[in-house]
Design brief:
With about 300 residues, the chain is an alpha/beta fold. It has 11 helices and 9 strands. The chain is about 45% helix and about 15% strand. The protein has a 9-stranded parallel sheet, covered by helices on one side. The termini are far apart. It binds flavin-adenine dinucleotide. Flavin-adenine dinucleotide binds near residues 107, 132, 180 and 182.
Length: about 300
């Protein structure tokens, strides 16, 4: 395609990005996290989200990180929240405490059982039963933006992709205003999914979740547990580099760059990055997308 006609090269796409972080477990991780936040913040993300550990294990840390983002930065934080292991009253009190801390955006999820993805999920008898219930509960308690998950390769527990898209439609009917996808490596998978979602009459933004492959083995393991497929060509690109972290990083940047620039050429302009609390790779990809740091 002629360069001038390629949106990724003609600089005319209005690119928007958001970043996901996880709450730190130690003082050292905390300082890494904040270094990453300070590095990525000048790229002016639409929002930054902070995950909620399995079974609510990071409740305090998620809250503390999100509250600090509100207090010390001009970023718009989104707090992840799950239905796992808590009564409705307990979850409602977390939601109220977010409202009190000035948080206006929640990423509402069902969550996984404490044993991890793949184990059978059992809703807390006194809790929110599904992510759809949680979305409705959040909307009832305040004027929150509510983001939900979406699964281009279907959630592993869903029978079919159509059933999965029905669940997404229910979450939208309950008040979800945006979805972020599970990560994927074949853009075709996301683009086809987007098409089906639109055909189903779902019109909220469906942000592609992009995972820069900081560590191939870890990413492949995680993908297996969450039902995301890892194509052979991707494994081949990292093969033989187990003891060569410098080259792995260059390959990771090349893979992610290829993925996002191809999506821009397909007309996608809004990206969500799973940062793993590391800024460099994501910063470089955002630079390639044409984003430049804004003065504080
Ligand atoms: P849901 O959309 O609730 O779907 C889960 C399963 O339940 C699907 O198989 C669906 O078909 C089925 N289902 C839902 N409603 C119904 C119904 N009414 N009847 C029948 N079946 C139904 N996990 C965390 O612990 N903390 C996080 O911070 C976190 N952040 C995430 C962010 C993103 C962007 C994504 C994609 C996932 C995240 N997860 C997180 C993982 C998520 O919690 C798991 O994938 C979990 O297994 C599903 O929760 P969900 O809300 O994504 O799925």
């Amino acid at each position: 395609m002629n360069s001038a006609l390629r949106p990724s090269r003609n600089g005319q796409s209005q690119i928007a990005v958001s970043f996901e972080f996880f709450p730190p477990k130690s003082a050292e991780m905390e300082s890494n996290l904040w270094e990453s936040i300070h590095r990525l913040a000048p790229l002016d993300p639409t929002f930054v989200s902070v995950t909620y550990g399995a079974g609510g294990t990071t409740r305090e840390r998620t809250h503390a990180t999100v509250a600090r983002l509100v207090k010390e930065t001009s970023l718009k934080p989104a707090a992840h929240l799950t239905c796992v292991g808590a009564t409705r009253e307990e979850i409602d009190s977390v939601i109220r405490s977010y409202a009190d801390a000035g948080v206006k955006h929640i990423v509402a999820l069902r969550g996984d059982p404490p044993e991890g993805p793949g184990a059978q999920f059992r809703a807390h008898p006194g809790g929110y039963q599904t992510s759809t219930d949680l979305v409705a509960g959040i909307r009832k308690l305040g004027d929150f933006e509510v983001t939900v998950s979406a699964y281009p390769e279907k959630h592993p527990e869903s029978g079919t992709l159509d059933q999965d898209i029905d669940v997404l439609a229910a979450k939208v009917d309950a008040g979800a205003t945006r979805a972020i996808t599970q990560f994927f490596f074949e853009n075709e998978t996301y683009l086809k999914y987007l098409n089906r979602v639109r055909q189903r009459g779902i019109n909220i933004p469906i942000l592609p979740g992009i995972v820069p492959v900081q560590n191939f083995k870890q990413t492949a393991n995680f993908a297996q547990r969450t039902g995301a497929s890892v194509p052979q060509w991707l494994a081949d690109r990292f093969a033989g580099l187990e003891n060569d972290p410098a080259t792995r990083r260059l390959i990771a940047a090349a893979v992610a760059a290829e993925q996002v620039l191809d999506l821009v050429d397909e007309g996608i302009c809004d990206f969500h990055f799973y940062t793993m609390n590391k800024a460099d790779l994501v910063y470089a990809i955002c630079h390639l997308l044409g984003l430049r740091a804004k003065a504080a």
